[in-house]
Amino acid sequence: MKVKELEHKIIAQAWKDPEFKKKLLSNPNETVHEFIKSHCPQAKDGNFKFNIVEDKANIHTIVLPVEPAKSKDLSESELEQLAAGDTWDHMGDGLQNFFTNLDI
User: Fold this and answer.
1) Threshold 0.85, pTM exceeds
2) Residue boundaries of the structural domains of the chain
3) Nearest to residue 36, comparing CAs of 22, 46, 51?
4) What Rg do the C-alpha atoms of the chain give, in angstroms?
């Protein structure tokens, strides 16, 4: 599963379940780990943390991902291509495997 797929499932759950949304905003780490723990053993040990922000009608949040280790060696075009995708190759095997192995 790709990162965006997981995000979409969490967003859909928050929209249909006000209690889930409330918990997601107040305790994102526990809530996200509970959401996926039966599908990914790495989620149980708390290795990854999550931050949830709710946009408002007149506010849009832009997330700056961790900068790729070799970003200084990439052209502007290559950086834009990397920024446009939802690949997490630059984050290391742990996080990449975490999201790749999800089966929700």
Assistant:
1) no
2) 3-53+61-100
3) 46
4) 15
